[in-house]
Protein backbone atom coordinates (compact mmCIF):
# COMPACT_ATOMS: atom_id res chain seq x y z
CA UNK A 1 0.00 0.00 0.00
CA UNK A 2 1.52 3.31 -1.01
CA UNK A 3 1.83 6.27 1.31
CA UNK A 4 -1.23 8.07 -0.13
CA UNK A 5 -3.50 5.04 0.44
CA UNK A 6 -2.16 4.55 3.95
CA UNK A 7 -2.86 8.21 4.72
CA UNK A 8 -6.42 7.94 3.32
CA UNK A 9 -7.05 4.76 5.33
CA UNK A 10 -5.77 6.43 8.50
CA UNK A 11 -7.98 9.47 7.84
CA UNK A 12 -11.07 7.25 7.40
CA UNK A 13 -10.11 5.36 10.56
CA UNK A 14 -9.82 8.63 12.50
CA UNK A 15 -13.19 9.76 11.10
CA UNK A 16 -14.83 6.52 12.25
CA UNK A 17 -13.34 6.95 15.71
CA UNK A 18 -14.67 10.52 15.83
CA UNK A 19 -18.09 9.30 14.65
CA UNK A 20 -18.24 6.64 17.37
CA UNK A 21 -17.02 9.09 19.99
CA UNK A 22 -19.90 11.40 19.02
CA UNK A 23 -22.37 8.51 19.20
CA UNK A 24 -21.04 7.50 22.59
CA UNK A 25 -21.25 11.08 23.85
CA UNK A 26 -24.85 11.23 22.64
CA UNK A 27 -25.62 8.01 24.48
CA UNK A 28 -23.98 9.35 27.60
CA UNK A 29 -25.98 12.60 27.39
CA UNK A 30 -29.24 10.64 27.03
CA UNK A 31 -28.32 8.60 30.09
CA UNK A 32 -27.62 11.75 32.11
CA UNK A 33 -30.94 13.26 31.03
CA UNK A 34 -32.75 10.05 31.94
CA UNK A 35 -31.17 10.10 35.39
CA UNK A 36 -32.18 13.73 35.89
CA UNK A 37 -35.72 13.05 34.64
CA UNK A 38 -36.04 10.07 36.94
CA UNK A 39 -34.69 12.08 39.86
CA UNK A 40 -37.31 14.81 39.22
CA UNK A 41 -40.13 12.27 38.89
CA UNK A 42 -39.12 10.54 42.10
CA UNK A 43 -38.88 13.84 43.99
CA UNK A 44 -42.43 14.67 42.91
CA UNK A 45 -43.61 11.22 43.90
CA UNK A 46 -41.81 11.46 47.25
CA UNK A 47 -43.59 14.74 47.98
CA UNK A 48 -46.94 13.14 47.21
CA UNK A 49 -46.13 10.13 49.39
CA UNK A 50 -45.05 12.35 52.29
CA UNK A 51 -48.29 14.34 52.02
CA UNK A 52 -50.34 11.15 52.05
CA UNK A 53 -48.41 9.92 55.07
CA UNK A 54 -49.08 13.22 56.84
CA UNK A 55 -52.76 12.75 55.98
CA UNK A 56 -52.58 9.26 57.51
CA UNK A 57 -51.11 10.67 60.73
CA UNK A 58 -53.93 13.22 60.90
CA UNK A 59 -56.47 10.48 60.25
CA UNK A 60 -55.00 8.44 63.12
CA UNK A 61 -55.52 11.39 65.47
CA UNK A 62 -59.12 11.63 64.24
CA UNK A 63 -59.59 7.91 64.88
CA UNK A 64 -58.18 8.24 68.38
CA UNK A 65 -60.47 11.17 69.19
CA UNK A 66 -63.60 9.89 67.41
CA UNK A 67 -66.79 9.04 69.20
CA UNK A 68 -68.31 5.64 68.69
CA UNK A 69 -70.84 7.07 66.23
CA UNK A 70 -68.27 8.86 64.03
CA UNK A 71 -65.56 6.22 64.23
CA UNK A 72 -66.86 4.07 61.35
CA UNK A 73 -66.93 7.01 58.90
CA UNK A 74 -63.38 7.97 59.84
CA UNK A 75 -62.25 4.35 59.53
CA UNK A 76 -63.74 4.12 56.02
CA UNK A 77 -61.87 7.28 55.03
CA UNK A 78 -58.69 5.89 56.57
CA UNK A 79 -58.99 2.69 54.52
CA UNK A 80 -59.36 4.76 51.33
CA UNK A 81 -56.31 6.77 52.35
CA UNK A 82 -54.23 3.57 52.74
CA UNK A 83 -55.39 2.42 49.30
CA UNK A 84 -54.34 5.77 47.81
CA UNK A 85 -50.99 5.57 49.59
CA UNK A 86 -50.39 2.02 48.34
CA UNK A 87 -51.28 3.07 44.78
CA UNK A 88 -48.90 6.05 44.95
CA UNK A 89 -46.14 3.79 46.30
CA UNK A 90 -46.65 1.27 43.50
CA UNK A 91 -46.54 4.04 40.92
CA UNK A 92 -43.33 5.40 42.46
CA UNK A 93 -41.78 1.93 42.44
CA UNK A 94 -42.61 1.49 38.77
CA UNK A 95 -41.06 4.86 37.93
CA UNK A 96 -37.95 4.01 39.92
CA UNK A 97 -37.60 0.87 37.83
CA UNK A 98 -38.12 2.87 34.63
CA UNK A 99 -41.53 1.45 33.84
CA UNK A 100 -44.36 3.61 32.50
CA UNK A 101 -47.59 4.03 34.38
CA UNK A 102 -50.01 1.33 33.23
CA UNK A 103 -53.53 2.44 32.32
CA UNK A 104 -55.82 2.53 35.31
CA UNK A 105 -58.69 0.10 35.31
CA UNK A 106 -60.75 1.96 37.85
CA UNK A 107 -60.72 -0.95 40.28
CA UNK A 108 -59.77 -0.57 43.89
CA UNK A 109 -56.39 -1.97 44.97
CA UNK A 110 -56.44 -5.29 46.78
CA UNK A 111 -55.41 -5.51 50.35
Total strand segments: 0
Query: SSE string, helix = H, strand = E?
Result: HH
Question: What is the helical fraction, as a range of percent?
Answer: over 70%
Mean pLDDT: 78
Overall domain count: 1
Structural class: mainly alpha
Give the helix tally: 2
Low-confidence stretches: 101-111
End-to-end separation in angstroms reads 75 Å
Strand proportion, as a percent range, falls in: under 5%
Shape: rod-shaped
CA-based gyration radius: 28 Å
Let me know the largest β-sheet.
none
Explain this structure.
Helix content is 83%, strand content 0%. The N and C termini lie far apart (75 Å). It has 111 residues and is mainly alpha-helical. It has one domain.
Short description:
The protein has helices spanning 3-65, 68-96. With 111 residues, it is mainly alpha-helical.
List descriptors.
mainly alpha; 111 residues; disordered C terminus; rod-shaped; 2 helices
Helices and strands in order:
Elements: H1 3-65, H2 68-96
